[in-house]
Every structure is written in C-alpha cells, then in structure tokens.
Write a structure and sequence with these properties.
Blueprint (H helix, E strand, L loop, with lengths): L1 H17 L2 H27 L34 H7 L2 H16 L4 E2 L9 E9 L2 E8 H5 L10 E8 L2 E4 L6 E2 L2 H10 L17 H10 L1 H7 L11 E8 L7 H13 L4 H8 L7 E8 L16
This protein binds zinc ion (2 copies).
C-alpha cells in the first residue's frame, strides 16, 4: 500500500513540473478563490458561535452527523465519540479547523507548530490552544510507517486533547489512520524537490509561518507590528543590541528612541532603527524569539519498540 503513495507522489511531481506557468497559475487562483470563500464562510459563522460545516451552533451535537465543532467541546461531546469524527475527517481537515478557530480567537500565538521545538523524529507535532481547550497533533516517522508486527501496523497519527488543563483524550487512546490524501501530502511536504507547499490559508497560520515571515521581511515586520504591555498577548519577543562607533553612541539619540517607543506602539527595535538610520558606525542587531505566552508543544512519550 505504501508503494501506492510514493508512486502517486512521483506522479504528482512529474505533472506539476510539466505544467507551464500559464497552465498552473489559473489552477492556483481557482483553488485560492475556493479557499477564500470557505474561510469567509467560516468567519461569518464563527462570529455567531456557529459551525460553517454543519451550520449548527457550537453548543449542539447530533450523533448522526459527526462534526469537527464537537472538538470545541461547547456541546456534550464524549471521548468515546471521537472515532466518529476521525472516520469522517482526516488529519488535514482536523488540523485546518483547529487552526482556524485558534487563529480567529487569538491570532498565530496559540498555534505552536514551530519546527525548532519539534523533535526530528516527527513528521508533524503541534499544539493548538483555544479558550479552555488544548489539542496536540503528533505523528512520528514510526507512526507513519505503522508499528510493525502489532495491530497498529498502518500509517497513523496520535491526538491529545485537554479540557481546563486536564487530559480528556490521551495520545495512547487512539491510533488514527492517515487517509490516502494525508499520506500523499505528508510525503510531498517532506520532499524538498516536490515543489509542494501545503498552506492552511491566511486564517491557518501558526507561529512557524509567522517566524518565517519575520525572517523573510524583517523591516516590513518591524514596521507592521505593535508592542503590547500585556505579556499574555505577546507573540514575538525582541531583544536589540545597539553597537556604536568608537566615540560611543549619543545619549540624546538613545533617549529619543526610548521616548519614541514610549509614545508610539512601535517596538524598541523599530525605534532604534528609525532614530539611528544612516548614522555612521551604528549597528543594531535584533534577536526575535517566540514569546513566553506561546504554549509549549505537549510532548508524547513514545512506547519503546520491542
Ligand atoms: Zn459542525
Ligand atoms: Zn503510534
């Protein structure tokens, strides 16, 4: 079965590479339009406490039509009904929905998909928080291969859900099968030559996409962000080091930068850059790291393989 996936991935690569730009752009735009439409429908429903997938309020549950909004646990969702969800929705469906709700509630900061904080053995590992709920989606290379010689000898992933900080679903409770589509996307995403980049759209961005953007356009980033006095709302923590020429840095200019930071909502990093722009011999280094308020990735301890 695994061969099927690799063959499909190969085929995808060949087809994608054979398309000219004129052929592939309209295809891309069409998909983007579809995604944008879906996302605006999501937002419209979300504002009214409703689910865009089934059209019902988050507080309702109907056992005959399993839905992703159950995972918000605004309704009387029970752990034993979790498989009903995973029979109907695959990893990418679930992940997109959870990212969208977390992002709509508090932006990128509650979506920790940082590669730096993820283990190398994982194909994906992310923790998403929304109100009183925390979800962790986790798949190691072993899970993708299937645990050989066991009943779970099929490609799968693991899920943990916390409600008010207490475990509601444990990593070990379910081995959730990866759909064919999931497997194909995972193979392509992890193949740097595939040219395939999966995106959850503007409403699905997490900390990794945020840090990527910062690295890609630091000046644009600094001029667009504002500071917060509430540490709970922080997304990125910035530290600036200012080095001056031999004669030292003008104290007046430093005060000017500090005052600008106090009187505007611009970061100190931005103000230093602005005030010292063009100043001979002054070098400003800014180190950006995810803020303290970003949730940690909940770690799964893998069972030793026998
Ligand atoms: Zn629903
Ligand atoms: Zn497993």
């Amino acid at each position: 079965m695994k061969e099927d996936i690799y063959r499909a991935a190969q085929l995808f690569k060949e087809q994608a590479n054979s398309l000219s730009q004129e052929e592939s752009l309209p295809l891309f735009d069409q998909q983007k339009d579809q995604y944008d439409q879906e996302y605006s429908s999501f937002l419209e429903h979300y504002k009214r406490g409703k689910c865009y997938l089934c059209g019902k309020p988050f507080k309702t549950i109907s056992k005959s039509t399993p839905c992703l909004h159950w995972l918000l646990r605004q309704c009387k969702f029970k752990k034993k009904d979790f498989p009903k969800i995973t029979e109907k929705f695959d990893y990418y469906n679930i992940s997109a929905f959870l990212r969208w709700v977390a992002n709509a509630e508090s932006g990128v900061k509650n979506i920790n998909n940082l590669k730096e904080e993820s283990s190398e053995r994982k194909l994906f590992e992310s923790t998403i928080e929304w109100k009183n709920i925390g979800w962790t989606l986790d798949c190691s290379k072993n899970d993708f291969e299937g645990h050989a010689g066991s009943q779970t000898d099929f490609p799968h992933w693991h899920f943990q859900m916390r409600v008010d900080g207490n475990r509601f679903i444990n990593f070990g409770d379910y081995h959730i099968p990866l759909s064919k589509d999931d497997q194909l996307k995972i193979v392509l995403e992890n193949d740097p030559e595939s040219g395939f980049i999966h995106t959850f759209g503007p409403g699905g961005q997490g900390m990794q996409e945020h840090m990527d953007y910062l690295a890609h356009d630091p000046d644009g980033y600094l001029s667009s962000v504002s500071t917060t006095s509430n540490p709970e709302n922080g997304v990125v923590h910035m530290q600036s080091i200012v080095r001056g020429p031999e004669g030292g840095i003008s104290g007046d200019k430093i005060n000017e930068a500090l005052e600008m930071a106090r009187n505007t909502d611009k970061s100190l990093a931005y103000c230093f850059r602005d005030i010292f722009a063009g100043e001979e011999g002054v070098a400003i280094t800014t180190i950006a790291s995810p803020a303290e308020s970003v949730p940690q990735i909940a770690k799964r301890t893998e069972r030793k393989r026998r």
